Amino acid sequence: MTVVNGENILEVQGVVVVFGGLMALSNLSFQVKKGIIKAVIGPNGAGKTTLFNVITGSFPPIKGSIRFKGRSIEHLKAHKIADRGVSRTFQTVELFGNMTVLENVMLGCHTRVPTSFMASGFRLPGAKRKEEEMRERALKILKFIGLADKFEEPADNLPLGQQKMLEIGRALATEPELICLDEPAAGLNETETYVASSLIKAINAKGITVLLVEHDMKVIMNISDEIVVLNYGQKIAEGTPEAIRNHPKVIEAYLGSEA
Ligand SMILES: Nc1ncnc2c1ncn2[C@@H]1O[C@H](COP(=O)(O)OP(=O)(O)O)[C@@H](O)[C@H]1O
Ligand SMILES: [Mg+2]
């Protein structure tokens, strides 16, 4: 998406996360301009998922700040951060497998609606209306992600590629301004990967800023506006796909990780 101004939607400043003796994120700072697709790459164990975990409030950093639209979020619980407009998907699919495709998206429609709400048959007039609205919204999202015809299927019945799209659908249901996608193409075949890339571009074209962790370099190089590279919890490079492709530190980190 074309960026009109350089306003930052996300600012990560001096973030430190430690697990036992391990620095999973080491004084990490970078910004994400509003409206772009920014990729986070790096070898396994570099801290990419940990970064998503601190941004989305799974746990706070021990040091540093994370600002979303200029306001600190690093101290907030996950649901509050979701309410502010940040949503995510997970590296391994985390759907409710025996619930339908539609119900899975509806669960995302309001982060504070508990799972039991739909399962229990709880019906008050206001709740009923709210559920209707959620259903309409979820159906629109299913159309957008190409799964409208599967709305009644249990999520477990879908092939992995469609389950990954469904996870993205659920993340969209919270109406995010920033969506964090953790390896959306992992385990997908070439066709599914193409579908995933197209969907990410379409999401971005709606004005949603995308923070993308992905191992598939073709996907990264094709769709990102900017890339930040992590290794052992540290930023080792940042720039355009062209700049990163030939960056000596990046090449070294990747060659090292394959040894
Ligand atoms: N909850 C956790 N407890 C302990 N160690 C963790 C935890 N999460 C991640 N780590 C460790 O932190 C490092 C970064 O992990 P992660 O963020 O998952 O890397 P990436 O997503 O880049 O592969 C790894 O060494 C990993 O083993
Ligand atoms: Mg990871």
Explain what you see:
By secondary structure, the protein is of the alpha/beta class. The protein folds into two domains: 1-85 and 177-194 and 207-259, Rossmann fold (3-Layer(aba) Sandwich); 94-175, P-loop containing nucleotide triphosphate hydrolases (Rossmann fold). It has ten helices and ten strands. It has helices at 48-55, 78-84, 101-109, 115-119, 125-144, 160-172, 190-205, 217-223, 241-245, 248-258; strands spanning 8-19, 22-33, 37-41, 63-68, 71-72, 86-88, 178-182, 209-213, 226-231, 234-239. It has a six-stranded mixed sheet with strand order 6-7-8-3-9-10, with helices on both faces. Strands 2-1-4-5 form a four-stranded antiparallel sheet, covered by helices on one side. Helix 5 (125-144) crosses helix 6. It is globular. The relative contact order is 0.18. It binds adenosine-5'-diphosphate and magnesium ion. Adenosine-5'-diphosphate (ADP) binds next to strand 2 and helix 1.
